[in-house]
Design a protein that fits this description.
This protein has 250 residues and is of the alpha/beta class. The protein contains eleven helices and seven strands. It comes from Cephalotrichum gorgonifer.
């Protein structure tokens, strides 16, 4: 398995992007400010959590309500979306310690890369692996036309991007090769990844916490990357070894 330097790592940090690395979820921002609005988006979120709708179907409906050309959408997001406090510091530490950071996102690559380049150098960008959905033009249009773009899903799953598939490339390794794996997330796009890693960080007060509580999936909460950094550092350095101990640190 060759996965951009992650194949022999002792620790891997998987993370969602929107609402986890970023303070504001870029897709929620687009949908609420330029598309269907808050009320309809929240109703679709509830349908996803209850199982009444697949993430794939509901998310496509959310984004399809945004008619602004794609380049204008990116420009809008660059003005309004910020990275979570502590992420750049944590990412720098991971690079120094040889802990790969892999972004598993239900969002679209051009938006993710555009936002990250606002805060990270090109050299730092090379240290990130991004596995995400993409954007495609609607028939007969350019993505930068009015109502000209749509999401292009990563796979054929009900999630559109089943994040567990990427994680299982590592969890299925023989015990002597399997790394310790972390995952950080916040919302409905993270449900497929919630049970797959050794330590799950779920953002306080968000949908992933509700799902984990209902399904009895172990997790620790976070508000920003400062607490994640402290806990991951303790585990990498051997000062904390179990999820129960990690939870006690927060």
């Amino acid at each position: 398995m060759t996965t951009n330097g992650t194949s022999h790592a002792k620790f891997i940090f998987f993370t969602d992007f929107d609402g986890t690395i970023t303070v504001e979820d870029s897709n929620d921002h687009l949908t609420e400010s330029l598309g269907m609005g808050h009320e309809r988006r929240m109703a679709l979120n509830k349908d996803i959590l209850s199982g009444a709708r697949t993430f794939r179907s509901a998310f496509a409906e959310m984004l399809d309500s945004v008619k602004l050309p794609f380049d204008a959408c990116v420009e809008n997001l660059l003005k309004h979306v910020r990275l979570h406090p502590g992420f750049v510091e944590f990412f720098t530490w991971c690079r120094q310690e040889g802990v790969p950071v892999v972004i598993l996102s239900g969002g679209m690559r051009p938006i993710i890369e555009g936002l990250l380049r606002k805060f990270l150098s090109e050299e730092e960008m090379k240290g990130l692996r991004i596995v995400s959905n993409d954007v495609a033009p609607k028939e007969g249009k350019s993505i930068n036309d009015e109502d000209g773009w749509k999401i292009e899903y990563h796979d054929d799953s009900d999630f559109g991007h089943d994040k567990s598939i990427e994680i299982r490339k590592y969890s299925s390794l023989p015990a002597d090769q399997r790394p310790t794996m972390f995952y950080a997330g916040d919302g409905v796009s993270d449900l497929s990844a919630a049970k797959e890693t050794d330590l799950l960080f779920a953002k306080s007060g968000k949908d992933l916490v509700s799902y984990c509580e209902r399904e009895k999936v172990p997790f620790v909460t976070f508000n920003d990357f400062h607490s994640i950094h402290e806990t991951v550092k303790a585990i990498v350095e051997g000062r904390t070894t179990t999820q129960a101990e990690a939870k006690g640190r927060l």
